[in-house]
Amino acid sequence: MGPPPATTRRRPVGAVDLTPAPEAAHPPRPPYRAPDRYGYPETPVETTTRLRPVPPGPRQRGRAASAAACVVLGLGLIGGAATGAWLTGDSSAEPTRTPYSTGRTAWHSVPVDTLFPRTLDGRGAGPGGTHRTWKRVAVAADSTCGQGLDPLLGTTLRSVGCERLVRATYTDATRSSVTTVGLVFTEADAPAMEALRTRFTEQRLTARKDLMPRTYAPEGTVAASFGDGQRASWTVNPLTEIPVVVLAVSGFADGRTVAAPQPAAEAMAAGATTDIAQAGLGHEAKGIADRVERRLRTTVDDLTERPG
After folding, report:
1. What's the rounded Cα separation, in Å, for the pair 69 and 60?
2. Domain of life of the organism in this record (predicted)?
3. Is there a contact between 258 and 230 (Cβ–Cβ < 8 Å)?
4. How far is the C-alpha of 29 from the C-alpha of 122, rounded, in Å?
5. Within the chain, where are the H helices?
6. Residue 234 near residue 261 (C-beta atoms within 8 A)
7. Helix or strand or coil: residue 224?
8. Which of 247, 226, 227, 229 is nearest to 238 (CA)?
9. In b/e form, how buried is each residue of 69-79, taking b as 16+ CB within 10 angstroms?
10. Is 132 within 8 Å of 172 (Cβ atoms)?
11. Is 183 within 8 Å of 244 (Cβ atoms)?
12. What sign has the CA pseudo-torsion 88, 90, 94, 100?
């Protein structure tokens, strides 16, 4: 007799199968690696294979050519600017001011009240160191030297050229004397002005009566009768620091004619006894000319040193 047939046991409905499931296949674990002191070792540096260069296409070639042209143009501009700056200096900088360049244009760039103040203080300017005060009577319109100077004096100054002539007339506090002072702005450079001054000194041109300055006698003023025949004393002084000739001529305010005019230096000399000397007309011409000259020098120096 054989073994009894196997029978299948039926699980009641709703019963839970407690038979353990077969173990699932798990991937093998990597071998254990002991940690370093500061963590795991770094991953080895990745290595790559050098790529084969690809020849540029037409578009890339055009871009490269444009870039090269820009570089060449930029270098050319920079080189040109550097060369220009080296040869001519910074073009944006203003030209250097000098007393000659500034002084030559002072006749129209400086206010008239600065060139010819309404009042001049002549402290110690009179005979024996007496004080003087001069009031401006009128200012003449700027003119050429041909209009404002006698022909011979104009010819004498021709070597330095005449840029412009400006003049004003003053009277003293007693209104007994009148003086015309003038500034001849020349076109000359320093050597030419030096040569003119040397000529005046060596040839004593200041003492020549035919080189007396001309008067400015506006009507309706105390100087209305101040003409050529009333010229009594004068001075002509070529400057060398700036391109200007300072001149002045004085006379009596009452219009009297003067037969023998005297240069200011002679009328101011010790022991001079002429009417001109005793009236102080030499001091008038020299004192007014000196003060106008000083103001002009100071103004030109300030303008030359002023920035911008």
Report:
1. 14
2. Bacteria
3. yes
4. 118
5. 58-88, 99-104, 106-109, 112-115, 145-148, 151-156, 190-202, 264-267, 275-278, 281-305
6. yes
7. coil
8. 247
9. eeeeeeeeeee
10. yes
11. yes
12. negative
Joined together, the tokens standing for residue 142 give 């700027």
* Structural tokens at position 227: 């003409």
Closest CA to 109 of 241, 302, 292: 302
Structure tokens at 146: 């041909």
Q: Which of 239, 170, 164 is nearest to 201 (CA)?
A: 239
Query: 242: helix, coil or strand?
Result: coil
Q: What is the CA radius of gyration of the chain?
A: 51
Q: CA-based angle 28:31:35, to the nearest 5?
A: 140
Tokens for 209? 């009566």
From residue 136, alpha-carbon distances to 31, 181, 255, 304 in Å are 117, 10, 18, 27
Residues shown for the chain: 308
pLDDT in tens, the chain (308 residues): 455 555 555 555 444 454 545 554 555 555 544 444 333 333 343 333 343 444 555 555 555 555 555 544 455 544 454 444 444 444 445 568 899 999 999 999 999 999 999 999 999 998 889 999 999 999 999 999 998 999 999 999 999 999 999 999 999 999 999 999 999 999 999 999 999 999 999 999 999 999 999 999 999 999 999 999 999 999 999 999 999 999 999 999 999 999 999 999 999 999 999 999 999 999 999 999 999 999 999 999 999 988 75
d(C-alpha 244, C-alpha 162), whole Å: 9
Which residues lie below 8 Å from residue 206, measured CB to CB, with a gap of 6+?
200, 235, 236, 237, 263, 265
Residues 6+ apart with CB under 8 A from 71: none
